[in-house]
Amino acid sequence: MQEFSDRWEVDRYLSASGYLGETTRPFFVALPKDRSTVSNDEFRRQISQVDSEVLGHLHDGIKGGYDEEKFKPYIGFCSLREYLESELQKRYKEAAPATLALLEQRCSEVNIELERLDSKIQATSDVSHLRKSAMMHAASISNHVGVLIDGAADPAPEQWGKTTEEERSESGIGSWPGVTVDIKPANAILRLYGGAAFERVMHEFRCAAYSIECPPVSREKVANILLAHAGRGGGRGVAEAAAEIARTAARSWLAPLLDTACDRLAFVLGNLFDIAIERNRSRESESGRKTGDMEGYVGFHAALRHAYNSIIKDLAKQCKQLVRHHLDSVTSPYSQVFYENDFHGSFGSSANSYFRHNQASAGSIWFELSDCGQVSHDERMRDQENIPPENNARQKTPGKGTEARDVHRESQMTVPETPSPDQPCDGVKVDVGPRKRIARIGNRNPEQLMKVHNGGSLLFGNGDCGSRSAYTEICSLAAQHFARIREVLVERSVTSTLNSGFLTPCRDRLVVELGLDLFAVNDEKFMDMFVSPAAIEVLQHKRQSLQNRQKVLQSCLTEFKNVARSL
């Protein structure tokens, strides 16, 4: 101020033109030089004295003074205080309606929350209220599990889904038993859950099953099975021995796969509980209402989780029994799996195919041999016992007729040796004294029966000297039978059984099963899930905190109403 001597200089400075803009009006304030600690009243006196000195200097010390009408409201600390107070009052007036409404809303929310906590504390002893809330919560979780099975993308699969490798490691199951190759189903690297993850495991099971072939069988095993069948008679032979080997291999190699599939599927469904909880929480926060407020009841949530896991384990156990039953059925000696190709082909082919199907289906009960071009001597003689001789008018000398020749021919008949897995199919001639009756051969055509009399092997193929050994033939047939068992089991039985055994109960009966487990108990046992000293203490602490907040908000509301009325 000591630098100004003329009015134009002071007016130019006070206008702040050139660097603050036309609409901006600065305030010019001078503070006392005394920086020592003083009281508030003394500081106010000093400020007022400085303002008087500044205005006096501008009025009397400057030649021509200054534009008081224009600049006096912006000079001095008192002017600044008046402006700030008026501006504050103006802002209060503008904000008063919205602020009052907000304070009233906050107070109302706290009051509602306090009422809810009071009712919740009171409900800890109200069994009917707790049952209702718990049943609504369990029903909501069950509905969300069904939605996830049917297909959903909420919550985010990127966060809640799992890849195939993660499912294997987290379930603790690892690779498929007996499978040496690395099974990578479609979409293995995608994070899936629910019905999508279930179907991926089903596809992985199919890949694992079809990667297993009939394992090699030692010659000793083949010999034990084949020789036992030959010793019992009945003509089951090579085909039945191969079928028995295939059935044994299927039971030992496919059964672990079925158990693993059930365990993997149970793990997928078990993961849905946490996802359903998250989905339920998200839906409640979006809608602003809760279907059964179970917050804080740790015992109930633990019981609900345990009940869900128990249901999934029971389903896995039942499914294991069902698929094992299908495995036992398809590997039963009475199963018609090996004859189904003839059955399906008979409808579109000739009558011979229909005849083959009938012959195969009834082979274990009755053998049709009447159309054979050549039958055994005993059968022919028995058939002729009740038929009068025809074209036989000329008597022959005893011992030199047909009977004598038949006896002589039978004594020179080729009889097969005891079969061996490595033995080729050559017959060995031996002299046989008394007549032997040839056992009937199940599922053999007349040409095979002819070869018994002509020196061919009964159990080892077509009687050609260059044919492959019985061991090779049995292994080949066993591999075909094993593939047929695997195909029927995987494509017809297991898929539908696992879908109906796991998914249908989870979609349709989960809420009932949870209700029976959790709520079909007496009041005393039911309240064990809720009456927890720790839970009640948490509720009371939260209630106390809300009461303190209620007092603060109510005090603010009252004070602001008074301020608003005075504005």
TrEMBL record:
One of its GO terms (cellular component) is membrane. This is Dynamin-related protein 5A. It comes from Gossypium trilobum. Residues 378-430 are annotated as: Disordered. It comes from the Eukaryota. InterPro entries: Dynamin. GO terms for molecular function: GTPase activity; microtubule binding. Residues 402-411 have a biased composition (Basic and acidic residues).
